[in-house]
């Protein structure tokens, strides 16, 4: 090393200057402590980041991504009974699969094989995320698929593919329904959608309602009629009741059951022309209808709508 004259003078001055060793030791210790604290915080941050990345990788690695063209065996990770109706219990089944990019209005196709016979049924997820797909299932005494699902235990697998179905909400912008065809998509635009949900048919309607609520540019008016046999059969009652408030008045909800009890405070009776006329606006090019439910419910509501003058081409059936 080479020192200039000024460097030697500075060194000599420092050697002659009185030193406060105690203060210097305190300052040095403070600096060392600060450096150690920074190092500890940095180390903890790195460890947490690695742990989170590892956790996400683990989830995605174990969550097979669904494909619309082929079935995949996915694992049941949660099973919950949400209805005490002994004749037709309702289940929430959560499968470990990736359906995060799920279009509104689409569903999944479930399949199982029994005695060389394939049983295939569509179901609309009630909830989906990068790692889970939740299906709501009402178990019927003679329902081949629902009976099979009811027998599933956590750890069992089911064949699922998706998204499937040809109907999409919002694909062509707010207030639109699209029928996805091979050659050309068919779009319909509207200002009001009349939704009729029978039993578990509430699931695609709930998808559409949540889509409207979550899109600040969507001001589509919705009238949702939820129909069931008894008050005990009504599913997702608390969640559905919150839709008008969550949508700031865009969504109007009406419940009806065909066999009410003394505590029932909503509508009673089956969905017919009289009920629809009292709840819904008249037919127009600004109005479409959407129906999902058992075959009998679907036919009855479609017939009632056509009887009131609604164009068949503007009645969408899930």
Notes on the structure:
33% of the residues lie in helices and 29% in strands. The protein has a 7-stranded antiparallel beta sheet with strand order 4-3-7-1-2-6-5, covered by helices on one side. The protein has a 6-stranded parallel beta sheet with strand order 14-13-12-11-15-16, with helices on both faces. The chain has a 3-stranded antiparallel beta sheet with strand order 8-9-10, with no helix packed on it. The chain is α/β, with parallel strands linked by helices. The protein has helices spanning 5-16, 21-62, 144-151, 202-214, 237-241, 243-246, 273-279, 295-307, and strands at 72-81, 90-96, 107-114, 117-123, 127-128, 133-138, 157-164, 167-169, 176-179, 186-189, 192-198, 221-228, 251-257, 267-268, 287-292, 315-317. Strand 9 and strand 10 (186-189) form a beta hairpin. The chain has 8 helices and 16 strands. It folds into 3 domains: 26-62; 72-164, Elongation Factor Tu (Ef-tu), domain 3, CATH 2.40.30.10; 167-317, Nucleotide-binding domain of ferredoxin-NADP reductase (FNR) module (Rossmann fold, 3-Layer(aba) Sandwich), CATH 3.40.50.80. This is FAD-binding FR-type domain-containing protein. GO terms for molecular function: oxidoreductase activity.
């Amino acid at each position: 090393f080479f020192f200039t004259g000024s460097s030697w003078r500075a060194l000599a001055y420092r050697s002659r200057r009185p030193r406060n060793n105690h203060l210097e030791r305190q300052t040095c210790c403070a600096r060392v402590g600060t450096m150690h604290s920074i190092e500890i915080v940095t180390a903890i941050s790195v460890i947490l980041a690695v742990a989170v990345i590892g956790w996400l990788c683990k989830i995605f690695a174990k969550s097979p991504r669904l494909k619309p063209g082929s079935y995949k065996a996915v694992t049941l990770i949660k099973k919950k009974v949400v209805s005490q109706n002994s004749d037709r219990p309702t289940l929430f089944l959560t499968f470990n699969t990736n359906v995060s990019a799920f279009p509104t209005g689409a569903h999944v196709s479930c399949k199982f094989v029994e005695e060389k016979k394939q049983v295939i049924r569509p179901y609309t997820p009630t909830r989906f995320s990068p790692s889970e797909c939740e299906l709501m299932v009402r178990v019927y005494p003679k329902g081949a698929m629902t009976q099979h699902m009811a027998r599933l235990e956590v750890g069992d697998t089911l064949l699922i593919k998706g998204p499937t179905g040809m109907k999409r909400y919002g694909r062509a912008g707010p207030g639109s329904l699209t029928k996805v065809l091979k050659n050309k998509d068919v779009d319909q635009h509207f200002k009001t959608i009349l939704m009729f949900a029978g039993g578990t048919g509430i699931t695609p309607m709930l998808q559409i309602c949540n889509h409207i609520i979550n899109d600040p540019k969507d001001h589509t008016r919705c009238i949702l009629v939820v129909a069931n046999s008894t008050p005990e059969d009504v599913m997702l009652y608390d969640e559905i009741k919150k839709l008008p408030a969550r949508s700031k008045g865009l969504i109007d909800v009406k419940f009806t059951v065909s066999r009410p009890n003394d505590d029932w405070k909503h509508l009673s009776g089956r969905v017919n022309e009289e009920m629809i006329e009292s709840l819904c606006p008249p037919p127009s090019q600004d109005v479409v209808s959407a129906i999902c439910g058992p075959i009998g419910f679907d036919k009855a509501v479609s017939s009632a709508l056509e009887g009131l003058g609604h164009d068949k081409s503007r009645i969408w059936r899930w």
